[in-house]
Specification:
By secondary structure, the protein is α/β, with parallel strands linked by helices. Helix content is 28%, strand content 20%. The protein contains 14 helices and 22 strands. Strands 1, 2, 3, 4, 5, 6 and 16 form a seven-stranded mixed sheet that branches. The termini are far apart.
Length: 555
Amino acid sequence: MACSSVGGPISSSLLHGLYNKLSVTFPSQAHCSRPFSGCFATKLRFPCISLPSYHHRCLPLVTRAESSLNGSDPAASSGEYDFDLFTIGAGSGGVRASRFAAANYGASVAVCELPFSTISSENEGGVGGTCVLRGCVPKKLLVYSSKYAHDFEESRGYGWKYESDPVHDWSTMIANKNAELQRLTGVYKNILKNAGVALFEGRGKVVGPHMVDVNGKLYTAKHILISVGGRPFMPDIPGIEHAIDSDAALDLPSKPGKIAIVGGGYIALEFAGIFNGLKSEVHVFIRQKKVLRGFDDEIREFVAEQMSVRGIEFHAEESPQAITKLADGSLTLKTNKHTYEGFSHIMFATGRRPNTRNLGLEEVGVKMTSNGAIVVDQFSRTSVDSIWAVGDVTDRLNLTPVALMEGSAFAKTIFGNKPTKPDYRAAPSAVFSQPPIGAVGLTEEQAITEYGDVDVYTANFKPLKATLSGLPDRVLMKILVDVKANKVVGVHMCGEDSPEILQGVAIAVKAGLTKADFDATVGIHPTAAEELVTMRSPTRKIRRVAPPPEKRIRV
């Protein structure tokens, strides 16, 4: 496409007027095939977008989308688009897909994302997404902070003495955490910039199969990728306006004195450990009998026991019904069984929902589930051929590394001409509770359902570190074996360093190694991890009961 050019000088006031009235995209010299003297905008060094090297060309004065006044898709008729890919949402999956498409495959790519904030809203988000800004990373930083209390307690048995108990300063931790988030969002912006991806700040909305609106400016793209993630879900009960979600819990102005955490999933348990470690009084309310639905039952029971020993109080089979704020500012929580008073904070960790509101997806024909998740096929394509989705917005397997995998597979499929399906088999996961959990493969319940005949190996022991500390810390390890093939189909662990250990074990499970392979592996001594290669005798053997033979009646 040729650059717009003029025969004589153009005043800066005229250019500013055009820039303000139209959705103008001005190229830099690096992305223009014509010299400055022939390129309309570059003399004034207007803001520009970055394009990958194979698109070194000037952009039109007006986006192609805006060249159509009747709302039709101009690119469809001309066969040209402003971009090969336009991504809405700069979280883990969106950044990975966009970076790979531009840097690895030479596509012209744009991404839009809301302005940075530590707490998300309809108008605020930030490059990096949930995991980086209000999920995995800040959560793990707070876990580190809270664990020192346990470390200080352990150290006494190893000869350490303190003239006074260490004091935690909440404001210092939050300030340092927020500074790190600012650094990380800058890192992600640079990742996009270095890959040649254009970044637009603002709310994106799909207005056609090939058209995106960002703050009133229209852009066309051959492919549109939705990667907007999810948002915390808050139930509609009286007084819910007095409660906080996980976003707010990561950025409180002061530490809770006494907190109620409603929910029994991994977010609830992680925050329970954080606040317990920082010496808050913690109560966890769960609707079911056990925490962590979907995890191995034995692990679920074990982690609840260990957390209870550390002072966290669990209230099983209790559902919240109302919250009341008293005159002294304290909060009261009413459940189906009791009324509890004196909370400084009530936090809901009752799941997350796909963040698909006001994206225009229904209007263009994108199918969604009842909870707002985008329905996709095995290659992440939606019901509209040109629109794709990856990450938590699809509600498949909501883990950051999975979103990265889906983003990579999308880029390979569309721009690398290598149709690639995300492989969800043996995807490991972790819960950064205290003690933490690592898991890969099937639970015992799933293994029995799938294979019938299963050998279960377990080890429940006091780790070496706890021998001198005198603390009641324990570790649980579990290996599940398909008897017929002698293949390890699941490994689960709850105890110190479980996530770090299980990442390595996940390679073995993914590779389909057998129990004999585990047994033949030399352990590292002295470690807790060596138990994984020294469990020789099954704790129990599960066998499918064969149906009784049919009785034949002679006639």
